[in-house]
Specification:
This is Integral membrane protein. The chain has four helices and no strands. The protein is an all-alpha fold.
Amino acid sequence: MIVSRMVSMFLRFGELVCAAVVLGIVSHFLHQYDHFGVGPLGREIYTCVISSLSVLFSFLWLIPSTSSFLHYPFDLLLSAAWFAAFGALVNWIDRVNCGGIWNWGGITARGSYCGQWKAAEAFSFIAACFWFSSFLLGVYVYHKLSRDPVATDGTRRRRWHRSRV
């Protein structure tokens, strides 16, 4: 159980870092849109909302507890939302003159629009993978805990009946 908690904390920290990076980059793009009116506003707002929710929930669920494994349906939902954000970012890169989606040349150029966009794209994909891994870990731990036998004191407890005490 200690290994799953450590892996969960690692995944939650990765989710937090990736979401914070994407939030910072996309917020910069929203600021640029406000000044110049250039860019895909809907895609930026969607990605900003998903990354904000991810920062919030990954920070809250970074606190180790058994209940943090019970959020695996929400992990799957956020993973799907991150994959959708990645797809929205990839779809926009085709419309601007930044090369193909797998052309990573110029990503290190300081202040480059294409480099920043591709960095947001990459971190959104990594965030989606972290959220999906967290979902898989949650499913594994939840079903492992539900199958493990529980030690009792030997008395048989009746369920769904009134107590005679």
